[in-house]
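Ticket reopened. Same input as before:
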Amino acid sequence: MAKIVFESVTKTFPTKDKKRKEEFTALDGIDLEIGAGEFVVVVGPSGCGKSTLLDLLGGLTRPTSGRILLDGEPVTGPGLDRGIVFQQYALLPWRTALGNVEFGLEATGVPRRQRAARAREFLDLVGLTGFEDRHPHELSGGMRQRVAIARSLAYDPDVLLMDEPFAALDAQTRESLQDELRRIWQRTGKTVVFITHGIEEAVYLGQKVAVITSRPGRVKEVVPVSFGGRAAGATGEDLRSSPEFARYRHEIWTLLHDEVARAQRLEKEEAAA
Amino acid sequence: MTTPTRQPHPTTPPPPSTAPDPSVANAPAPAPAPGPAPANAQAPAPVPSPLPVAAPGPAPDPVPASAAGPAPVSGTDDPLPRPESAPAPVRAPRRVAVVGRWLRAGLLRSAAILLLLAVWETAPRAGLVDATFLPPVSEVARAWWDLLGDGQLGEHTRASLTRSFGGFAIAVVIAVPLGLLIGWYRPVAAFLGPLLELFRNTAALALLPVFVLLLGIGETSKVSIVVYACVWPILLNTISAVGNADPTLVRLARSMDLSTPRLFQKVILPSAVPVIFTGIRLAGAVSILVLVAAEMIGAKAGLGYLINASQFNFAIPQMYAGIVTISAIGVAFNQVLVTIERRLSLWRVPAA
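Engineering reply: fixed in the latest deploy. New output:
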């Protein structure tokens, strides 16, 4: 049974330009099914409404029409059954790494005494043992995002929503975190919805890659990705340099290419207007 | 009023290093030397700009670096971080160097003051200025000692501090909760913004006659004017601190379905503390500033009275003794507040 279902979800925003009274359609009739425990990557050009999709799923905004079902129930607001990982980490700078992970637990009513132990456990899961007492400004970007991931996992949501979580990181850090994320996903069995604009990242991470068109955002195609090599334990460069990987990347690149060109043209027109 | 020369090095940076590591201790607090220069009541940098809600405010940016996109220290050290590779603080060999640095910094920091004292001592003696109006510092010191000995100084200081701290404390108790409330309800902040600006920019002392008219010349009017003058920096900083809370953190809290009181307690309030405290520190300087002026009008005790009365009686060394005492109190009070502020802001990203 599908864990998450988007049923012709549309989201429009009133434009700021009051004279024209137009509405900006961010998402237009999105249909998408995500199975329990699946790792789905949503990829699209910038400004295609990827983040809106995630806000809707997180319950931070409501769809203009259509509905989103989570375990068969419509999403009506935020909840601790979904954990969001933000691109900007969103760590509380006055708390240590441990305190930040505990922050997630405080919301769920885990008894105070168990919080620290639980938080340590999850910091360990993301490879940050020994950094419990560091404040965010004492951690590198990659480590901060690890803390954020640990925080989201700690309160044990069924679904992990990730909004371009690795976009601000340098290439090496990003690749190592991608491997970590896949490992964590396999270990915890969470359903992951991962937003990105990186094609390689999408191919590398996803079981399914949903390609979104821009303005209005629609699902252009959902590409299932599976590597023969992965079963044999291939990761990193082995996988990225395989012919299969190149084929998937090309396929998604082709799907996106027209979209990127179109998005750029639209942006130019808008800037000129 | 035109005494910028009295603050020889208001911006000289060597951090007072209360903490051993200067890179951490480098909190955003360029102490606005509260001494005799009245200028900082007018244009202190850290007071937030006109509209607390709209303007990002030049106050030390409360949005921490987490919102600033790419982290300054991006993770070359990141792939598979090993705890044991954490930079272990090597204490012992550095201690000597640290003490040496302290000494040098201390010398540098006190050099200007020592120079001032030297000039103050020699200029009247050499006849460069009239010793009647500017007696040498040694004479002032003797007068100060005598005043301390016969209990006058203690009495006046106690009178001043009671009013000053009393008014300051009342202002903190009023302005912080009020500021939190106004800052949280943005329409209220937008509505009250211009009015608050108007009041803030009305020099408190200009209203002193009004206070005297309404409350008489007793303690009430003096404490009230201190309260009034202290409320604005605290209130405006608090409003701006709440308004500038990192939107990503608010989104995070919302996504976790935190109730509004919880959001306030766990996110808004802690993130606002440093900026609120900047306001409190400014108010601390203002409280002494305003009080002294108030005491010069219709008071029978207090340091302001002592200064004024000494001048009337032509007891010039006593007058300077009073002035020096006020400077010392101002510096000490500010130092206490700076220390607390730093303690509360340790988590902030060291000023880049």
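Residues 45 and 257 of chain A are 9 Å apart (CA to CA). The radius of gyration of chain A is 19 Å. Please confirm and we'll close it.
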